[in-house]
Structures are given as structure tokens and as C-alpha cells.
Amino acid sequence: MPGSQPKSQIELINFASDTPHARLIFTERVVHGGVGVSRCVLRPNPGTMIGASQFTVIIHEGVPFEMEWRLPEMGEIERCQIVTGDLHINPADRPVFLRWTSSPRVLVIAMEQAFIDQVVSDAFDGNEPILRTLIGIRNPIIESMAVAWRQELAERGNGGRLYIEGLGSALVVHIFRAYGEGLSRSPPVIGGLGALRLRRVTDYIEAHLSEDISLRDLAVVAELSTHHFGEAFKASTGTSPHRYVIERRIHRAKELLLGADHSIVEIALAVGFASHSHFTGNFRKLTGTTPSRFRIDRK
Q1: What's the domain range around 254?
Q2: Which end of the chain has less Cβ packing within 10 Å, N or C?
């Protein structure tokens, strides 16, 4: 009956799990630590209380469709047409009544609550966040961020944990700045890491280039929060932690290419790239040539 909410079981989707779910089909997915991005096709939904185990940002990518919803604090069911670029933001473990009849395609960024808590605590001086469910909104900044998420999905997560955690941190801070209630805004970082901290961080990076370095790893070395570390590192170096690590990996790769006769694949793995193609793509971006051509030309 219009205006009433049908009885419905509660469904929580775990976007980090390989277990199939009745409400969606994964077509692509990348998960690093507490952050994941996936592309899904949703199955028609006659009316269900749906939520997720993770904090989710869902971006519609397909043709327009009609959707109905009712938030727990709402008295009536809302209806609207969802079009490409519309966003839904929902905290973890918060089911919402939803209904649609088509098979929409969506991009989903899902982040574990522990990751959200850490980023928000770092960015807002430990204040408790209040974020309500948002459905069918537009946000140009998040739309622009989605380009990087789609690229990372296309490259199957080859950017690594450091990159995807950096994307996640930036997204979370923007969402809570834009929509959070009762949060004090921490002042921007003035200055950089300082010579001693910067040296500790860069020494750590050099010693662990072959590993999947996380943003948290580097923040711990610097003795800063993850959010403040990222800003301070960029202030000191003029680049993001992820970009700096990529540049150091390519520098190390050049040395190996000119040294012993290791294969390109062996060198890629030795400097922390997940695959030959990811290594070659980054090498070409920074040098204008491929690893093989670089070796031949220099020898």
C-alpha cells in the first residue's frame, strides 16, 4: 500500500566476502586491507531492508531507474529517478528499506568500520562522527574521485595497498567534512615532517620497496596519524606517499636493469610491483620508455 513499508527481512551485504549474495552480482572487485572497490549488477528487489557490513559509497553507472526507499527516521516512502552519477552513502550495519525493479549497475567503495574510525579520529581530533544515510545525492568532488577508483579497478588493484588506502582516506575526510554533523574541523597541517622524521620515513621506504607498504606503516614510522602524515609528507616532498614510493621503485628498477641479468618479471617483483604490466606501465609513465628498451639503450 502506498506510503507504508512492507515487512521485510534485514539483509547485510559483505563487500569483502567471496560468498555470493542474492541481491547482487560482482563483475569486478579489488580489496586491500580495510578498503575495497567493486563493480556490481544489482538484481531486482521487491522491497528489502538492505545494508552492508562496511561503510559504503555507491555510485550509479547505468541507465536511469526508479527507486523507492525509507530511512528508519522517515515516516513515508520516498521515490525518485536515479541517474548516472547519483550517490548513496550509508554507514556500516545500517539497513534501509529499498525497492527497485530493474538491474542497475553500480560502483561500490566499501570501507571497514575500523578504517573509518581511524581516519575520522585522525582528521577530526577524536570527535565522534554523526553521519546519516544519504540517497540519490550529487557531489562533484566524489564524482571526480571516482575516476581514480575506476582506474584502480581496471588495473586490478596494481596500485597496491598504499594507494587504495590513500584514496579511501581522502574520500572519508571529504564525506565527513561535507555531511558530518557535530564534528570540529582540525586545522590544516602547517609545515612538513621535519628532517629527522622525513629521513626515518624515506629510509623505511627504501628498505621495504619490495613489500606492500601501507599508509598506516609509514604513519607509524613518522609517529603521526595517517591523515596528518599524508598532508605533512606532501608538504615536505611536494608529492603524495604513493607517488613517492612509485618513483623510488622505478629508480631501484633502473639500477637492477643495468646490473645483473635479471628478467623484467623478476625486477618488477623485486621492487614491489604486482605484475609485469603494472611495472611496465609505471616505468613508461615516468621515463617515456619501457624497461626492455631502457636496458637495451643503456647497454
Answers
A1: 249-299
A2: N
